[in-house]
Amino acid sequence: MQIDKSQVIDFIRSQMGEGKAKEADSELPAKVDTEQDAGLLSKFGIDPQELIRKFAGDKLGGLFG
C-alpha cells in the first residue's frame, strides 16, 4: 500500500514527537510503500501493518480502524 509521506510524517509526529518526524521527513520517499519501505518504517518504530490498518480504514470510512 502506498501512503503519502505527509500522512506518515504526521503519524510519526503524533506517536514519537517532532524530532523523529523531522528525521523521517528527510529519509522517507514522497510516496511510502508499506512493503518496499518496511525497513525504513521499522527504523522509526512504525509497524507497516499499523499504517495499513490506519490509512486503509480511513479510506473505507473507518471500517478497519
Explain what you see.
- The protein has 65 residues and is mainly α.
- The chain has one domain (2-59).
- Helices cover 62% and strands 9% of the residues.
- The protein contains four helices and two strands.
- It has a two-stranded antiparallel sheet with strand order 1-2.
- Helix 1 (5-16) packs antiparallel against helix 2.
- The chain starts with a strand and ends in a 6-residue tail after the last helix.
- The model is unreliable at 61-65 (pLDDT under 50).
Q: How do the helices and strands line up, and which of them pair or pack?
A:
Layout: E1 2-4, H1 5-16, H2 18-27, E2 31-33, H3 38-43, H4 48-59
Antiparallel strand pairs: 1-2
Biggest sheet layout: 2 strands, antiparallel
Question: Which residue ranges are poorly predicted, with pLDDT under 50 across at least 5 consecutive positions?
Answer: 61-65
Rounded Rg: 11 Å
Average predicted local confidence, pLDDT: 88
Principal-axis shape equals globular
Into which percent range does the helicity of residues fall? Answer: 55-70%
Order of helices and strands: EHHEHH
Q: What percentage of amino acids are in beta strands?
A: 5-15%
* Number of E-type strands: 2
Keywords:
two-stranded antiparallel sheet
Task: Give a concise summary.
By secondary structure, the chain is mainly alpha-helical.
